[in-house]
Each structure stands twice: as structure tokens, then as C-alpha cells.
Amino acid sequence: MIQPQLLPTDFNQGLLEFLSQSPTPFHATSNLSAVLSAAGFEPLREADAWALKPGGRYWVTRNDSSIIAFVYGRRPLLDTGIRLFGAHTDSPCLKLKPRPELNRRGYYQLGVEVYGGALLAPWYDRDLSMAGRVTCRRAAGEVFSLLVDFKDPVAVVPSLAIHLDREANSNRSINAQKDIVPVLLQLDTEDASPPDVRTILLARVQHEHPEAGVTEVLDYEISLYDTQAAAVIGLEQQFIASARLDNLLSCYTGLRALLEADPEVSSILVCTDHEEVGSASCCGAKGPMLQNFLERLLPEVDTRVRVIERSMMISADNAHGVHPNFMEKHDEKHGPLLNRGPVIKVNANQRYATTSETSAIFRMLCEQVEVPLQSFVARTDMGCGSTIGPIVASEVGVKTLDVGVPTFGMHSIRELAGTRDAWLLYKAAVAFFRFNKPPVAQVSV
């Protein structure tokens, strides 16, 4: 039986550290890159010519927020196909507007825009920090980008007291334009000019990167995030509580599994940005990043099509666990439980890309490594979310399975998953990356 290298406790500890150290897609991609480099993967630049060789291991990023890692198997691609594992680096959050500075009754606030389908109520009364990418200039005129992370709590979105809104528990709505504007500072006077956010960011950049010689911040992509660290909780330590479980949990799971991939078989980890807003960007799943990579790996069209036909992708994105307080929100026979194993996601209208063939192959692999599986189908009278799975399947033409770890509070500022499930998905992903036959169902007529 295939056994992964990491035990559940060690895997979860690494996951907690990765979650806490990755407040934005930029930081997540940087952290993934660092692990890959430490493991001997060679960095590539898209602007350079490539000379990929069987037996090599590589990684490449786009926009600093999406990454592809590749194990080039020694066996011919036409013999084995490619194992692909996909996830996304972004999560719903609040992002600073280009001109965010506000002075309201002497309180310095920063205007924010909601990114993705965020659950807004949990953002109140949290200790918030700021992180992201800033694009800077040196004295000589060179323009370049750096990552920043304030780390300490610097902002809060205070709730309105119930005394001022007696219907708060029964009928309060949230206006995203005016109700969730964070407070950062109390100014000396009510008519004082609010500090320029670029000046604040410049000071932070110079503090974090004194060697860079930054003289000006030209622009930025800055998000707010909860400073409470990821943690294992529960009376018997059965749950992981953290921001960005959707979907950094899957990114980390794919990373750890790829490090144990069979060197004879070609494998890809692809973690893209902008899934929460439709994936339509240069670095999103609807963009050409993965397709460009495959074209450079296999320039000849006929060979590329044949290899893709012998390949399979696992699209890993969290699933909705059945909530004990809202059980009616699930189909009565498809309500996944936390700590009962990964979830195969199915949708007749192709919101998920699972087919009977990809599901069967994954079930076979999980059976071999003793990983229990669950199924999720949305209630027929309710809408269904989606993933990068259908996008990659339609853009690349690769057979795809949608799977994920059951989760509570998806898109909240703090989500909840089971301590057992991510490790079980990792165990299954290791088996997938070590599967040395083309993942094509053999049909007898």
C-alpha cells in the first residue's frame, strides 16, 4: 500500500503554518515557491526560452499570484499521460480602493471593495491587518514589485451597538459601501487631512525591505485579513479553524503530494488566482497560463492532444459540509460530514466537472489506500457553486474530477474543517501522483 511521508499531526502543523503565513495570493504563491525551491525544483521565467528535460522538476509563476509546478517524468508522456492537481490561491476578502483615504469625524478610515462572494457579517470586530503587493520605484527610476505584510492588527470594522439597532438580530442588512469601512486611526482634529495610504505603504516597504532602496510607492494591491492564527480546536482537537481554508488547504495538500510524486510519471500542480471572481484573467484558470505551459512542453499539436487524452486532473476545492443547525440546506442523501473523508462533487449541469470515469478512477485509488469518500450534490431547488474544474476541462480538454474537503462557514473570515480530512485528501493525492498508468477507463464491449 502507498503510504505518504507525513503523519496527520505533522501534515496539519505544516498546513496551519502555511495558512497563517499566506494572507494573500501573492504570499501563498511566494510560500509555495519557497518550498518547491528548497525541494530542488528549478524556477523558470515565462520570458525566457525553456529546455525542459525528463527527470527535471520545475516551477513558474504568473502575476506573482499563480503557480505551476511540474515533475517531468522519465517515462514518455505518451505512455503515462500527465497527472494534474488544481486549486486556487485567492479567497474572498476586503481590498483597498485606489483612493481609499477618509476622515469621518476625526476617524481615519480606508475605503474597501469586496472581493468575491464574501460572508460579510464575520468581518465585524476582528483584529485586522493589511498585506499584499506594492509596485515601487527606486531613485534611478526602476519599477518593480515587493510583498508587504503589516502582521500586527492595524484596523477594525466596529459593529453598531444593538441599542442603536434593536432589530440587529432579526433584520440587519449590510451595505458594502458604507457599513464595512475599517477604522485605522483617530486623528487630532475632525478636519485634519487623512494620511496618504501610499506614504504609509512606503514606510512599511522600507521597513520590510531596507535593501531595496524604494523611494516611491506607485500602486498597490492590498487586502485586509484577520490576524488570528490558524488553529486546531475542539474538545478533542478535531477541527481546523482558519481564514482562507477555501482554498489554500487544497493548494498545500497538492504541494505536499507533488513532493512525493513518482519521478517516472509526469505530474503538474497548478494553483491559479481569481477563481472567486470567475477566473477570467491572465493568471486565472480561464486565462492561458496552463495552456501556454502545455504548448511549450508539447509544441506539436497531435502529440499534445494525445497526451491530454491520456491525462487526468483533480480539481480540489472545499465542499459544503452538512451544518447541524441547517441540515435542510442539503440534499438528504448528499450531506458530507467533517472528518469522514474527501467529497466527490457532482452536478448534472456541469458546475462540477466530475464524470463517471474520473470518479471511478479516484474511487479505485482511494480504495487502494483506504481513504473513505463522500459525495456532494446540491439540492435540486438551490443554486450550485463552481470551481476551476469545468474551466480547465473546457479550456484544455482534460478529463477532470471535482473533489474537496467538507467545510463549515465557507467564505467567512474564519472557516472550519476537520483535522482528518485534509490529510486524507493528501493521502489520496499521493496515490494519484504515483499512479503509473494512463488514467483512462478500460471499457469492454
How are the SSEs placed, and which strands pair?
Elements: H1 8-20, H2 25-38, E1 42-43, E2 57-62, E3 66-71, H3 77-80, E4 82-88, E5 93-104, E6 107-115, E7 128-138, E8 143-149, H4 168-171, E9 183-186, H5 197-208, E10 214-226, E11 231-233, E12 239-242, H6 245-258, E13 266-272, H7 289-297, H8 301-309, E14 312-316, E15 319-320, E16 343-345, H9 356-368, E17 374-376, H10 388-396, E18 399-404, E19 406-408, E20 415-418, H11 421-433
Parallel strand pairs: 1-2, 4-13, 4-14, 14-18, 15-19, 16-17
Antiparallel strand pairs: 2-3, 3-13, 5-6, 5-10, 6-9, 7-8, 7-10, 11-12, 12-20, 16-18, 19-20
Helix pairs in contact: 1-6, 6-11
Broad shape: globular
Number of domains: 2
Cα-atom radius of gyration: 23 Å
The rounded distance between the terminal residues' Cα atoms is 31 Å
Low-confidence sequence ranges = none
| Overall CATH architecture of the largest domain | 3-Layer(aba) Sandwich
Organism: Cellvibrio japonicus (strain Ueda107)
Cofactor: Zn(2+)
Protein name: M18 family aminopeptidase
Family: Belongs to the peptidase M18 family.
Structural summary, described in words:
The chain is globular, with a radius of gyration of 23 Å. The mean pLDDT is 95. Helix 1 packs across helix 6 and helix 6 packs parallel to helix 11. The protein has 11 helices and 20 strands. The two termini are 31 Å apart. With 445 residues, it is an alpha/beta fold. It has 2 domains: 275 residues, 3-Layer(aba) Sandwich (Aminopeptidase); 134 residues, Aminopeptidase i, Domain 2 (Roll), CATH 2.30.250. The chain is 26% helix and 26% strand. A 9-stranded mixed β-sheet has the order 1-2-3-13-4-14-18-16-17, sandwiched between helices. Strands 8-7-10-5-6-9 form a 6-stranded antiparallel β-sheet. InterPro entries: Peptidase_M18, Peptidase_M18_dom2. GO terms for molecular function: aminopeptidase activity; metallopeptidase activity; zinc ion binding. Keywords: Aminopeptidase, Hydrolase, Metal-binding, Metalloprotease, Protease, Zinc. One of its GO terms (cellular component) is cytoplasm. It holds the Pfam family Peptidase_M18.
